[in-house]
Design goal:
single chain, alpha/beta, Rossmann fold, Helicase, Ruva Protein, domain 3, 2 domains, seven-stranded mixed sheet, two-stranded antiparallel sheet, binds S-adenosylmethionine
Length: 280
């Protein structure tokens, strides 16, 4: 029987063999639960090409390699390269790139992968310290059809949040605009080495909009949420630098200047955005 990398004893052996300790600064928490890792890969719609952010010692990468045609994994920690070369030596469909994912030209990579393999999805146990910027970066690429990620429970709650909920934010509005969002399953702390102090959850985003450049709309949404305690009028006044124009925009959209953005649904934010465009 194959001994998967995520078997607790095997992970421990690998870490010992290479004298490795999980680096907090890189958000390293290794998954040591073969059932969860396999289920996560199986449900990720990774049959074409799949992108992983942070392969670590290769536990999820290995499962993705079993179910997909090609895996591209971005790893920032150069100490993990020799480990991955060793642990993934049985798979010839894995490409490890020693790169900061936030710095990479994602659009170019996704285009090339889509051309060669037909579909591109993302599956990752995300480093918690950069969850939000990673997700924002992924959201801007319309060719990624599924994103399956392990995140802190609080982040999962933000995607489920509705207007007026304390967790409702720019991330919630953007996520809900672009995707059907599903919680796949919860992951207990004991499934990691080392165990984090927070609960985790695997969520899946299924893209519902294609062929639409959302970067301008999202910049607008982030401006609306820039200072949570301020009204939409004040946030937009700072964004456009012109109070009279903002009054006109809000009037056109039928939204009162005294509301705060977290009281508005993403559809209402979209109406304000359209009003701003039409009055430009
Ligand atoms: N996938 C492995 C697992 O599930 O056991 C490791 C997950 S661990 C939570 C996060 C991984 O992301 C680590 O390997 C870490 O070195 C890597 N990482 C952190 N920041 C990164 C970045 N900016 N770009 C690429 N990888 C990064």
């Amino acid at each position: 029987m194959t001994r998967w990398i995520s078997t607790p004893s095997y992970t421990k052996e690998i870490l010992e063999k290479y004298g490795l300790r999980a680096k907090k600064g890189f958000g390293q928490n290794f998954l040591v639960d073969p059932v969860i890792v396999e289920r996560c890969a199986q449900q990720s719609h990774c049959e074409g090409a799949v992108i992983e952010i942070g392969p670590g010692i290769g536990s999820l990468t290995e499962q993705l390699a079993r179910f997909s045609k090609h895996v591209t994994a971005y790893e920032i920690d150069e100490d993990l390269l020799p480990v991955l070369k060793d642990t993934l030596s049985a798979y010839d469909n894995v490409e490890i790139l020693l790169e900061d994912f936030l710095e990479t030209d994602l659009d170019q990579k996704v285009r090339a992968l889509k051309e060669e393999y037909g579909t591109v999805s993302v599956c990752a146990n995300l480093p918690y310290y950069i969850t939000t910027p990673v997700l924002f970066k992924l959201f801007e690429n319309q060719d990624i059809s599924y994103i399956t990620v392990m995140v802190q429970k609080e982040v999962g709650d933000r995607f489920a949040a509705k207007p007026n909920d304390p967790e409702y934010s720019a991330l919630s509005a953007e996520g809900q605009y672009l995707y059907d969002i599903k919680k796949l399953f919860q992951v207990p702390g004991r499934s990691f080495n080392p165990s984090p102090n927070v609960d985790s959850v695997i969520i899946q985003f299924c893209r519902k909009r294609e062929d639409e450049d959302v970067s301008d709309f999202f910049a607008f949404v982030r401006a609306c949420f820039k200072q949570r305690r301020k009204t939409i009028y004040n946030n937009l006044k700072e964004y456009y630098g012109d109070g009279a124009k903002v009054k006109e925009i809000l009037e056109e959209a039928g939204v009162s200047g005294s509301v705060r953005s977290q009281q508005l649904t993403v559809e209402e934010l979209r109406e304000v955005y359209h009003a701003a465009k039409s009055l430009r």
